[in-house]
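Hi L., both proteins are below.
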Amino acid sequence: MSTVEVVLSPLFLDNNKIFTKAPYNIVVIDVLRATTSICTAFMNGAKEIIPLQKETETYEYKNKGYILAAERDGIKLPHADLGNSADEFTVEKIKNKSIAYFTTNGTKTILKAHSLAPVYLGSFLNIKILSDYLIKDKKPVVIVSSGWKDYPNIEDTLCAGAFAQYLLLNEYYCLEDGTNIALDLWELAKNNLESYIKKASHYKRLHDKLNLSYIVPYSLQLNIAHVVPYYDGAKIINIF
């Protein structure tokens, strides 16, 4: 039997404050919106996605001919081709294309997590297929919520709870309270996700300031993406 651990903030990745002992696999979650958009991009045929650490890199990759998807504090950068919402990653725009990707939270968490373990990208869209893949690998799983600027958030914790529940039903077990917190939140909200998510500060940010709350119902759909996004240290690819 293997363990599952939920890390409620990427701050716990600093100085490797992970309860689980290596080797393990990491699942990075950023429901609103990076990992949902990554899953959607691969659903629609993207070739690869390059996560960027710094905004200055966005100009370099744009000049190299990459499709640039980039936002800061939820707002699309002026020179970007795409923002950070899944509906922008259409077949017409991204099929067989290489995408450079910069976001406020998700891409930074991906890069930070890679220093510790193999990194996969999860969302509500691909819980089952990604979990089944990891179960076959038989390693412990550490689920990292990207949160908002290092603070925990509701939507990523909910999704982490959904992942954890699936793994626990498949002979995984948990040893720490981050997982129990995520599981309890998922149990509380799972039958009315769209209503519950309106408590989230990021939902309010998307709704009140950015006029982007329309993307939330799509982002809460379960298991519609048959993709397993994996970061190999240079690029994210779909390995399924």
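That was the first. Here is the second:
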Amino acid sequence: MSKRSNQQKYNPEMCRERRRNFEPRHERSCGAIVFREINEELRVLLVQHGASHWSFPKGHVESGESDCETAIREVKEETGIDIEITSDFSRASTYSPYPGAKKTVTFFLGDYLGGSLRPQLEEVQRAAWLKPEDSKKYLVFDRDREIFNDALREIGYKTDSD
């Protein structure tokens, strides 16, 4: 009896699939930092993705879609809020969500146009308009806090670090 009798025979498709699973992947997502005034106080839109993971609305770029179009669509899908992007502000965060993968998320400044909060519960647990000072406590990643501080400076809001 040969050694190979207990093993699967060579299957080219299985080999291609295994190779695809181990090839480095680069994911791209886009989102927006959205500010608005509520009762004469500045607020920022955050979404809760997990038990303790809050961030700005964001999602994957779809085929044929620009980065700005992605950000606008994702904010609408995740929160029910309509925005437009009129600023040149853009900041990226690149990290490795798991071994063999790299993800770049680009954030823009979104101008609030209207709509009421209706979180898409398949994507996010909650969505909220928070005061900037409170928002910093919820952002778990240093790069998200850096980008947020840049956005606050961009709109002329004085931060604790200024």
